[in-house]
Amino acid sequence: DLVEAQVALMRLEVTDGRPKEALTVARDVQRQRPKEVVGFLLEGDVHASQKAWKEAIAAYRAGLKVGPDATDGAMKLHAALGASGAAAEAERFATTWTKEHPKDVGFLRYLAEGSLVRRDYAASLAYYRRALQIEPNNAMVLNNAAWTAAQLKDPKALEYAEQANKLLPNNAAIMDTLGNIVFDKGDTTRGLELMKKAVVGAPNSPGIRLNYARALVKAGQKD
User: Fold this and answer.
1) Which helix (H) or strand (E) is 45 found in, with range?
2) What does the alpha-carbon distance between residue 118 and residue 131 come to, in Å, rounded to a whole number?
3) Closest Cα partner for 85 from 62, 53, 119, 124?
4) Crossing angle for the helix pair 139-151 and 105-117, nearest 10 degrees?
5) pLDDT (tens digit, 9 = 90+) per residue, 116-128?
């Protein structure tokens, strides 16, 4: 009944193409932990791996009845609804969840990131701003809000990035964001300095390295 081992076993069964055996593990967890959400989420994950969206949705809904405040379950249900083609129902669920759980920063960040994937920057920034109303000193939310605001040419982008950098100095992702914003605003020297530090801090990040290279080209430093 060690749940960490059961989760690992379920994932191995799925990876090996044995969904029936994976479901058996998930339902064992449900029997052992009937008042916990984990077993239902595991069952939903097995169905989702097979693109059996109807069954996945039912399992995630059952999990939320047991654990009505489970952010993971809410995110999984919303994703399954969207994947099943029920976009309108997914949107209604998101609206209801955020009203009933107004301080669920995790779900707001999930919605923001989903909007980013769709390049709906306005919606993404709106979700990040709602998250910042709850956690104004969350450095990574500030960083993501800064990057998103920059895509919209929103003047708040620099403020968000500077605040994130003060809260979490020497973080490569934050220095990369701030460096790009500062560079685009015309402070070439500081922008390149920040991006160089970001590359040093995350030498294996191709995205950060590429941003620095592009900035160097714009600055005339092609070599």
Assistant:
1) helix 38-49
2) 19
3) 53
4) 30
5) 999 999 999 999 9
